[in-house]
Design a protein that fits this description.
GO terms for molecular function: glycosyltransferase activity. By secondary structure, the chain is of the alpha/beta class. It folds into 2 domains: about 200 residues, Spore Coat Polysaccharide Biosynthesis Protein SpsA, Chain A (Alpha-Beta Complex), CATH 3.90.550.10; about 80 residues. Strands 1, 2, 3, 4, 5, 6, 7, 8 and 9 form a 9-stranded mixed β-sheet that branches. The longest helix is centred in the last third of the chain and has 22 residues. The termini are far apart.
């Protein structure tokens, strides 16, 4: 039952290509949000000008780029809703996204509900994916936990996540050390330590507008693994061997899929390179200044 007031918050840094479509999708929701915030994290493009064209949206501006976690905290401080929904600026929300997310709050122990991102470059199929790097991301690096609902996940994907505002305040908000990635892993660990639950609903969908080349894909993978493992380490979570198992398992699974199912050596080569990037990023996080937890 929808007994909540809802704030939708969009952290944004130089998102002029996507922000209009993003806001329009929020305004087109079957369940209209009670409040929409866009956090301009020191944009140097036309993002503020575009946002100001939407009278339904409150624009909050940082004078300099503070990073993703800091932007999420700015939204938290300014939100009036009981539930705070975070969407990435380069996403387009399915028309029933908010309605679906709110259905997940069916018990007091549920602190957050999240969904998944579907790569817009591929729609819902592989047809139309002209670039092998976008195809690889669509096949092997989409942000979601599959097609089944799960009560009790470790984290919610940052591009499509929601939390009870009071729970975020209880854990002290997001750690501003996470400038680009890892804040979703970190907040998930903290919420789970309270004995509360995070729920994943695959029907809660956003469409992710991203185009990659090798360099941007490498940067994305590096950030995911470096900051993901850093979040585990900072929370005293013995995750190193777990990360190695994930990397090895994904490498074997992806290579088999690429070569046997897709018969695409180009995809297999990217999978090989990606595994090396994942290993390097994880070891870099392990050997960083803080005490490693094995």
């Amino acid at each position: 039952m929808d007994n909540f007031s809802v704030t939708v918050a969009v952290p944004c840094y130089n998102g002029e290509k996507f922000i209009s479509e993003n806001i329009s999708s929020i305004l087109s929701q079957a369940r209209i949000p009670d409040e929409i915030l866009v956090i301009d994290d020191g944009c140097t493009d036309r993002t503020p000008e575009i946002v100001k064209g939407f009278r339904e949206v409150k624009l909050i501006q940082h004078m300099s780029n503070k990073g993703l976690a800091a932007s999420r905290n700015t939204a938290l401080r300014n939100a009036s809703g009981d539930v705070l929904v975070y969407l990435d600026a380069d996403t387009r929300a399915h028309s029933k996204l908010l309605e679906t997310l709110l259905q997940g709050y069916y018990a007091d122990e549920i602190a957050g509900v999240g969904g998944r991102g579907i790569e817009a470059t591929a729609s819902s199929t592989e047809e139309g994916v002209n670039d092998i790097y976008n195809l690889w991301r669509y096949l092997h690096a989409s942000q979601g936990f599959g097609d089944l609902s799960i009560k009790g996940v470790n984290m919610l994907w940052g591009l499509c996540s929601s939390y009870r505002k009071k729970v975020l305040e209880q854990v002290g908000g997001f750690d501003p050390i996470y400038k680009t990635n890892g804040e979703d892993v970190d907040i998930g660990i903290k919420i789970n330590k309270l004995g509360l639950k995070l729920v994943y609903l695959p029907e809660a969908i956003v469409y992710h507008n991203r185009n990659d080349n090798f360099d941007s894909l490498k940067e994305m993978i590096t950030r995911w693994y470096f900051w993901g493992y850093t979040a585990k380490k900072r929370n005293n979570d013995p995750a190193f061997l777990h990360y190695l198992r994930i990397i090895l398992f994904n490498f074997i699974k992806n290579i088999i899929f690429d070569l046997i199912i897709k018969r695409n050596p180009g995809l297999a080569f990217i999978s090989l390179k990606a595994s090396g990037i994942e290993l390097k990023a994880t070891f870099k996080a392990l050997l960083s200044k803080e005490q490693p937890w094995l």
